[in-house]
Amino acid sequence: MTDKTFFNLHDLSQGIQRQLADGLETHIFPGENVMLSIVRIAPDREGEVHSHPEEQWGVLLEGSGVRVQDGQEHAVSVGDFWQTPGGVPHTFRGGPEGALVLDIFSPPRPEYRKAGSGFGD
Amino acid sequence: MTDKTFFNLHDLSQGIQRQLADGLETHIFPGENVMLSIVRIAPDREGEVHSHPEEQWGVLLEGSGVRVQDGQEHAVSVGDFWQTPGGVPHTFRGGPEGALVLDIFSPPRPEYRKAGSGFGD
After folding, report:
1. Which of A20, A114, B40, B94 suits a disulfide with A24, CB 3.0-4.6 Å?
2. What is this structure's pTM?
3. Interchain CB distance below 8 Å, A55 and B74
4. Cβ B102 vs Cβ A59: under 8 Å
5. Does the CA dihedral B110-B116-B119-B121 come out positive or negative?
6. B75-92: per-residue pLDDT in tens?
7. Helix (H) or strand (E) holding B6
8. Enclosing H/E stretch for A101
9. Chain B residues with at least one Cβ partner in A under 8 Å
10. Do B80 and A5 make contact, defined as CB atoms within 8 angstroms?
């Protein structure tokens, strides 16, 4: 796929690269109203709890882990997906084999429009 | 998962059901700024070409098929994803084993907030 509107989850040459935390790497695809972020989480690694005003959805594509959201822990398996309303504190802890998560932000998070590190808050 | 913000792609009891066309069934999850639609496409079935003002992204989760977009045909495999800007005519044709596609709309499509049939245009 070479068209600029067609991508693949496993093509690490695509998207804007960001290291969210040690063991959490993402490739970011900004649209007009929505932004996709393909997050690779190493085994047993976890980001810091954070929040932002943008609505977020997550889909667990590979592996397993724990979605920490609004002070509660939710064990998740492949195919699980979840909504995180704006302002709700959250993070994700990878399972023993790590995890691949599709995060969806709307509106796009302006902090994620450029390469860098951290959760941008 | 019983929490109303946690779902699974394969739980057919969840979401708002809509028959887009013969052989294309979806379960829709509206958020505030974004709407997810889990579309099951039967082998070799195809929807009608349509468009809408809302931005759309699609992710091929299972199977294979052809994304028809802006008059061009793009063969897609599992893990491929694509952006469809608002107003661009599009449809999807399932491959020989069918397809499971995650569609993402922003803003949410008002036509899809209730159960029904058709593409809503």
Report:
1. A20
2. 0.96
3. no
4. yes
5. negative
6. 999 999 999 999 999 999
7. strand B6-8
8. strand A90-106
9. 1, 3, 5-10, 29, 31-34, 36, 54-55, 57, 59, 61, 67, 69, 74, 76, 79-86, 102, 104, 106-107
10. no
